[in-house]
Amino acid sequence: MTPDSSSQSGPEYSVRVIPEDLQTALARALATADAGLVAPGSAAVIDVRASARPDLGDWTTPVALRAAASAELRTRLAAHLCTELRALPEVADAVVSGPGFVNVTPTPAARARVICDIISAGARADTHSGAEQDGTTFRALVSASAREPAPGLRADGRGNDVDSGAVNALQRGHAAACRELRRAHRAGIPTTASDLATLAQPSETRMLTIVAGLPSALERSRRLGESEPLLTALLELGAVVETWLRRCPVTPTVDEDITVTHTSRLLALRAVIIVLAAGLRQLGASAPERI
């Protein structure tokens, strides 16, 4: 879906899966459906969201419900879409649930690519290079031009500032992540010899799914001229990160060796800090490293 365009120590992760990538793949799959499956002239919106049932997949879409020529054909169209998606190297599985929802599970390498893309975008922003070129990529969220809030995101659509309590919660979460980063550095955890595809604990995969959806949330906020989509996604990320740090320690205990798991989690932590800081800037708020 998305070719590898940056280097990262450790294994190569050639593709990623974010909602925009899946929307493109699903549009192509709809175009290859048998005659009569898709409603004539159908221009269904391909909405891809993080699944409320992670056991069924990271992502879910109701596009088959909207595009099928009839209610009786919904599950058949959904099955076709799943078959097409499973043929992609970045998709581990795609299954049908309910009346025709399509649920997608990326490969571990595809999840890992998301972290690489974020860290690469953060490096470009720090050097004031690689200006924003595509509103649906991490570069749009993290770029140096995003140091000022995007138009329309400072207010909630009713002329009110973004809820200060929500912003404070995000700032505390960002500071907590930075504190864990400092601990990891003091412990001497390197960022080399990592294998991001090993990040497979449920809280880790959920965190990576929410991170992968942030560019889409930013695009929705910009399109609607209100902060709610981005703020909701950021708050969900903050809550998941808190669970992740509790269940998947980045820093080993004093009697524990540093392993590839710790180096990989450190890179994931760096990516989380980058997107939380960028999200706060998009909302017109600061991203303190200490509170």
TrEMBL record:
This is Arginyl tRNA synthetase N terminal domain-containing protein. Residues 20-106 form the Arginyl tRNA synthetase N-terminal domain. GO terms for biological process: arginyl-tRNA aminoacylation. One of its GO terms (cellular component) is cytoplasm. InterPro entries: Arg-tRNA-synth_N, Arg-tRNA-synth_N_sf, DALR_anticod-bd, tRNAsynth_Ia_anticodon-bd. Keywords: Aminoacyl-tRNA synthetase, ATP-binding, Ligase, Nucleotide-binding. GO terms for molecular function: arginine-tRNA ligase activity; ATP binding. Transmembrane segments: none annotated. It holds the Pfam family DALR_1. It comes from the Bacteria. It comes from Brevibacterium linens. Residues 170-291 form the DALR anticodon binding domain. Gene3D superfamilies: Arginyl tRNA synthetase N-terminal domain, Isoleucyl-tRNA Synthetase, Domain 1. SUPFAM superfamilies: Anticodon-binding domain of a subclass of class I aminoacyl-tRNA synthetases (SSF47323), Arginyl-tRNA synthetase (ArgRS), N-terminal 'additional' domain (SSF55190).
